[in-house]
Specification:
This protein is mainly alpha-helical. It has nine helices and no strands. Helix 6 crosses helix 9 and helix 7 packs across helix 9.
């Protein structure tokens, strides 16, 4: 039986080269590849769908207008996420931080819909987590979101944020400790 030849996907590097030459299809492909990650980061940092969409749009416009500045050392995804993170933090400072949305509120489990008690417990946990996340400093919160929401490695986060891996590790550890303490306190408070 004959197998269909496999076509290797076009690399980001080639797409960036084409996008620098005003290739709209290359820009569209880069947009399609990374819009979800960009949105998730912006959404977790801002807690508002409309603000996150605005930040993603603004960030993509910045990225495409500054492609000549992209040196390729850290990869397009990391470079774009750095732009998204900085834009979201700037946007949040200028608009005052709004309510955070749960880590996976959009994709809740179907079984949860069948069990009202479980759904209420999850909503309570989401609210407690959102409140705890909002108390973290922007640097710690951003590092934790890149790790927990996008599943980025320590090395990838270090490249994205242009900090040493040790800094990433200490920020994630600080986030875990603060979130754990806040969630334990909230759970104890709920027993009163």
């Amino acid at each position: 039986m004959l197998e269909a030849p496999t076509i290797a996907p076009i690399t980001d590097e080639i797409l960036v080269q084409r996008a620098r030459s005003s290739d709209s299809a290359a820009r569209e492909e880069l947009f399609q590849r990374y819009r979800s990650d960009a949105y998730r980061v912006a959404y977790r940092l801002l807690g508002n769908e409309h603000d996150a969409l605005d930040v993603v749009q603004e960030s993509l416009l910045k990225a495409f207008s500054r492609l000549a500045d992209f040196d390729g050392r850290c990869g397009f995804r990391f470079w774009l996420l750095r732009i998204v993170t900085n834009s979201a933090l700037d946007w949040g400072r200028s608009r005052k931080r709004k309510r955070l949305v749960g880590l996976d509120e959009r994709n809740s489990d179907a079984a949860t819909h069948d069990d009202p008690a479980r759904r209420l417990r999850q909503q309570d946990l989401r609210r407690a987590l959102d409140e705890a996340l909002s108390r973290l400093s922007p640097k710690i919160r951003t590092t934790f979101v890149l790790f927990a929401e996008l599943g980025m490695s320590y090395k990838e986060i270090a490249e994205t944020q242009e900090v040493p891996i040790g800094t990433v590790m200490s920020r994630i550890n600080a986030a875990r400790e603060k979130l754990q303490a806040a969630l334990d306190f909230d759970q104890l408070k709920g027993l009163d």
